[in-house]
Design brief:
By secondary structure, the chain is an alpha/beta fold. The chain has helices at about 10-25, 30-40, 45-50, 65-75, 140-145, and strands spanning about 50-55, 80-85, 90-95, 100, 105-110, 120-125, 125-130, 135, 155-160, 180.
Length: about 180
């Protein structure tokens, strides 16, 4: 059995992930700031033009996505959510049954939806830079997914404490179009 090789970049990212989870865990007004995040998202012309939005189910101390989901429902927009299949993110409609993934995230269980139906993507992360660099949980799911919807506008969302001046990045790391924070 081959041992997994770690690089200094991998080690930097792993240490930063641990730190950013602790930073995010200290946010005590998560709901208020989440509502502010979704207000900012709603002001984007690209979001406003989209009838179908791919978001994520907030878990643990991530931004609370319930207010976003309520906004989308009130506006009559279609909410899509990702699920992990192997090493890929698959897009499915949120209206069907949900189940906890191996990561503890609620995922839709219905049939896959063609990514071409996505009009706007909201991207989670542990840390971002203003220029759109992103640090995720380390699975590379969004780095592999975002190129499949190239040309579809997207935004990374986080709390202000998660916005950093710079992040360790490699050639496979995909930037988001913009970053919103509250």
């Amino acid at each position: 059995m081959l041992a997994e090789v770690t690089t200094p970049l991998d080690e930097q990212k792993a240490a930063l992930r641990r730190r950013m989870v602790m930073v995010r865990d200290l946010v005590d007004d998560r709901l208020v700031r989440s509502v502010e995040l979704w207000r900012q998202v709603a002001e984007l012309p690209e979001f406003h033009a989209a009838t179908t939005v791919l978001a994520f189910c907030g878990m643990r101390t991530e931004p609370d996505t319930d207010p976003l989901f309520a906004r989308l429902a009130a506006e009559g927009r279609r909410l899509l959510l990702p699920r992990v299949e192997g090493q890929a993110l698959v897009v499915a409609d949120s209206a069907g049954p949900m189940a906890a993934s191996r990561f503890g995230v609620q995922e839709p269980q219905g049939p896959a939806v063609d990514p071409e139906e996505v009009g706007f993507v909201i991207v989670p992360g542990l840390a971002f830079t203003a220029a759109g660099a992103r640090l995720g949980y380390g699975g590379g799911f969004y780095d592999r997914f975002l190129p499949t919807v190239a040309g579809v506008p997207n935004a990374g969302v986080c709390f202000s404490e998660q916005l950093l001046d710079e992040l360790p990045t490699g050639p496979h790391d995909v930037r988001v179009d913009r970053v919103l924070h509250a």
